[in-house]
Design brief:
- This protein is of the alpha/beta class and 415 residues long.
- The protein has two domains: 215 residues, Rossmann fold, CATH 3.40.50.450; 149 residues, Phosphofructokinase domain (Rossmann fold, 3-Layer(aba) Sandwich), CATH 3.40.50.
- It contains twelve helices and 13 strands.
- The strands form three sheets. Strands 3-2-1-4-5-10-11 form a seven-stranded mixed β-sheet, with helices on both faces. A four-stranded parallel β-sheet has the order 7-8-6-9, sandwiched between helices. It has a two-stranded antiparallel sheet with strand order 12-13.
- Helix 5 links the parallel strand 4 and strand 5.
- Helix 1 crosses helix 11.
- It is elongated, with a radius of gyration of 22 Å.
Length: 415
C-alpha cells in the first residue's frame, strides 16, 4: 500500500465521555488506510493557529492505548470555543491556516464537534474550494445536547442520557428516604440551552421499581411560573415527595432565562451563548418561599458530560464508527461533509454511518418535536422514550487501578 499524506484532527466545544472514542476511530482508520502521520491539534482550531499540535503516534503506541483512549472522558487533545471569522473579515486568518496545513503536508482535516464546530468545517472547505486548495475537510458529530441536524442522534448523548437517568433514580431513592409525613421537593437541573433531549432523558428513571420524575420541563416550550406553581401545589395534595427535572435553558414568555431571575447568565462566550446556571436553585428557593416546604436543587453540571464510568457501549461504539467513517469518506474524495448516524432499525436497534453536506447542518438546531412533549408541556411521551432507550444500552467498563478508573493522558514530553 502506498503511503498517503497526513491527517490532522481536532476536538472542539464542550467535551463528552465518548469524544475520545471518535478520536480513536480516526487514528486507527487512518493507520489502516495507509496515511503517513496523524497529527492532533491541541485545543482545536485556536491552538492550531498557534501551531500547537502533536504527532499522535507519540501518544498512542499499542492496541491497549486505543482501548484506554476510548474509555477516557473529556477532550484528550484539549478543546476550545473559537469562532472563525467570516472569510471576508479576516483573509489573513485563512491564509495562515492553509500555510500551516501545507507545511505539515495535510491531506485531510477532521474536526470533532457540535454545531459551531461544523461552522468551522463549512468555512474551511468553502475557502479551499474557492482558492484551489486540495485538502479535504470532514466533520465528526459530537455533543451531549443531541441538537445537530440530519443525524438521528449524536455521539455523547447516549452516555449522558444514561448518567442522567441513573442519577435521577438515585436522587429519587434519596428523596424518598427522607419524605415521611413531610413535603419535600427536589429540582434537578440538566444541560440544554435550546434543546431538551437531555432533560427528557430523566424519564428513563421510570422503571419497574422507580416512579421516575413527576414533572419534566424542556426549553422547547415557554415556561409559565404561575402554571408551574399551581401544578406543583396540586401534586403535593396527592403525594408528599416530588422530583422535578428542568432544562437549564427554560425561558419565560418575555424571553428571559429563568436563571436570569437570580442574576445569573452574565458570562457570554465567543459564539454569543450565555452561561446558564442556577435554574434549579432559583426554582427551589422560589417554591420553598411560596409553599413553605423543604426544597433541594441538584445541578448535574459537567458531571453529565464526563461520566465515562457509566458510558453506554452503544454510544462508544458509534463514536468510534463515525470517527473512522470520516477518514474513509475523505480518503474517497469527500469534503465539506459531516458524518451522521442513520437509524436502520428500532427492533432490534441498528445504526450505520451516513454523510451529509455540512452546509445543511452547520448553525441549525434539532429540537425535541412538539408531539414528543405532552399536551400540558410538563412531561415527555412514549415516542421520546422509544427513541432514547436504545442509545443507553450496554456498558463499557473502565480499566480500574487501585479502585479508580484509569485514563490516557497527553504526554507533552513526547510531543
Amino acid at each position: 500500500m502506498s503511503t498517503k499524506r497526513n491527517i490532522i484532527v481536532g476536538q472542539s466545544g464542550g467535551p463528552t465521555s465518548v469524544i475520545n472514542s471518535s478520536l480513536a476511530g480516526v487514528y486507527k482508520t487512518a493507520q489502516e488506510r495507509g496515511f503517513n502521520k496523524v497529527y492532533g491539534m491541541l485545543h482545536g482550531i485556536e491552538g492550531f493557529l498557534d501551531e500547537q499540535y502533536v504527532d499522535l503516534s507519540t501518544q498512542i503506541h499499542t492496541y491497549m492505548d486505543i482501548e484506554l483512549l476510548k474509555r477516557t472522558p473529556s477532550a484528550f487533545l484539549g478543546s476550545c470555543r473559537c469562532k472563525l471569522p467570516e472569510i471576508y473579515e479576516s483573509p489573513d486568518t485563512y491564509e495562515k491556516i492553509f500555510s500551516i496545513l501545507d507545511k505539515l503536508e495535510i491531506e485531510v482535516f477532521i474536526y470533532i464537534g457540535g454545531n459551531d464546530s461544523m461552522d468551522t468545517i463549512k468555512k474551511l472547505s468553502d475557502y479551499a474550494i474557492v482558492h484551489g486548495h486540495s485538502q479535504k475537510f470532514l466533520g465528526v458529530p459530537k455533543t451531549i445536547d443531541n441538537d445537530l441536524a440530519l443525524t438521528d442522534h449524536t455521539p455523547g448523548f447516549g452516555s449522558a442520557a444514561k448518567y442522567i437517568a441513573a442519577s435521577t433514580k438515585e436522587i429519587i431513592r434519596d428523596a424518598l428516604g427522607l419524605s415521611y409525613n413531610k413535603e419535600n421537593i427536589t429540582i434537578i437541573e440538566v444541560m440544554g440551552r435550546n434543546a431538551g433531549w437531555l432533560t427528557g432523558a430523566t424519564v428513563l428513571a421510570r422503571t419497574e421499581e422507580c416512579v421516575g420524575p413527576d414533572l419534566i420541563y424542556l426549553p422547547e416550550l415557554t415556561f409559565d411560573m404561575d402554571k408551574f406553581t399551581d401544578t406543583v401545589m396540586n401534586l403535593l395534595k396527592k403525594k408528599k415527595n416530588l422530583v422535578i427535572a428542568v432544562s437549564e435553558g427554560i425561558k419565560l414568555e418575555d424571553g428571559r432565562y429563568v436563571c436570569e431571575l437570580s442574576g445569573g447568565a452574565d458570562y457570554v462566550d465567543a459564539f454569543g451563548h450565555k452561561q446558564l446556571q442556577g435554574t434549579a436553585a432559583y426554582l427551589a428557593n422560589y417554591l420553598g418561599a411560596k409553599i413553605g416546604c423543604k426544597t433541594r436543587a441538584v445541578e448535574f453540571s459537567t458531571l453529565q458530560r464526563s461520566a465515562s464510568h457509566i458510558a453506554s457501549r452503544t454510544d462508544i461504539d458509534e463514536a468510534f464508527m463515525v470517527g473512522g467513517a470520516a477518514v474513509k469518506a475523505a480518503d474517497e474524495g469527500d469534503t465539506g461533509k459531516m458524518v451522521v448516524i442513520d437509524r436502520v432499525s428500532d427492533d432490534p436497534y441498528m445504526a450505520a454511518a451516513g454523510i451529509y453536506d455540512v452546509h445543511r447542518i452547520a448553525n441549525n438546531e434539532k429540537l425535541v418535536p412538539r408531539e414528543w412533549i405532552n399536551k400540558e408541556g410538563n412531561f415527555v411521551t412514549q415516542e421520546f422514550i422509544d427513541y432514547v432507550k436504545p442509545l443507553i444500552q450496554g456498558s463499557y467498563h473502565p480499566f480500574m487501578v487501585n479502585g479508580l478508573p484509569q485514563h490516557l493522558v497527553l504526554n507533552m514530553n513526547n510531543k
